[in-house]
Amino acid sequence: MVMKVHGAVLSTAAMRVFATLYEKDLEFEFVPVDMGAGEHKQERFLALNPFGQVPAFEDGDLQLFESRAITQYIAFAYKDKGTPLLCEGKPMATVSVWMEVEAHQFDTAASKLQWELMFKSIFGMATDAAVVEENEAKLSKVLDVYEARLSQSKYMGGDCFTLADLHHLPVLTNLMGTTVKKLFDARPKVSAWAADI
Amino acid sequence: MVMKVYGAVFSTAAMRVFAALYEKDLEFELVPVDMRAGEHKKEHFLAINPFGQVPAFEDGDVKLFESRAITQYIAHVYAGKGTPLVYEGKPMATVGVWMEVEAHQFDPLASKLQWELVYKPKFGMATDAAVVEENEPKLAKVLDVYEARLSQSKYLGCDYFTLADLHHLPTMTNLMGTPLKKLFDARPKVSAWAADIMARPAWAKVLAMRNQQ
Asked: Is the ipTM of this complex over 0.90?
């Protein structure tokens, strides 16, 4: 039975999972969830993710949610297929640190900016300039740390591309289509890393 | 060389790490970081954690930060010692889900409420009632999901205590000392689970560290 991803192609969280599956050359079935119609808040979907968010995932009788739990499951369970996305032993500890950094330092500011500068205009809502200014400043500080890190390490977690890099891709890509691109362009190591991944 | 934890005994993030170390009966040295004096924003600390936050951690030449990366390192590398806090294979996938739930669903709300109701009064600052009013119902909804989950599973990740439960301990313990205790008390499975994990001997040792200061 083929793996299933319940989600939407616009969902940055779902895109993390798709990225992982493609990196590993794994077959999967995409089950669209009509978020515009509120399908993700209905009983049938809540049975897959009680928090009513995409993506949800099935591999045989295993049902998961939370994109970063799904990507880690895929990376471990299929570690011999396609791109290795994790390391073994002590190097994994450092990959883990930078996975936490993406989740707790980068994603909070980046998601807010993505919402203001990209999704709001898609939904015909007005951007809040104060929120943009506040989060641009926060994101700048995070990217300064990234610039220093990438001067010592080819990728965020070490010398290989791992989930610590992959998890950034969906929101990073969205921000590159906004004025926030300048923050990445201004930092050579960050800029090169972003272009590479 | 003994493991080192750079932090403060009242830092909820540092307390996650202490809890993991005590669960596993591991020796460690606490290197205090004077946050009131801004030590965590100074050069020598930024060299250990460039984000200027506690805790930071050293095990020989392994240097880490971010509490949940540190606890996972401890749980995996010292898997054979003390309480098992993670598992191998498929069961770990579900533990992984509920670890993410703590980090992304529970913690953002619980941390805001903890700041308003526990830390601000300590620092002589005024609680913002609007923030409490906004986040309390959100936390209640998360706990409704926990109530359903704990009706099917003894602990959040599986039938055994794991990091998925442990990561809640510091912030949850703080909230139990505020009127928000009622949200936990109102949900029988959640209430029993909370009482169970807060009664663990390792957690008592972490709280004893705080009470000594």
From this structure: yes
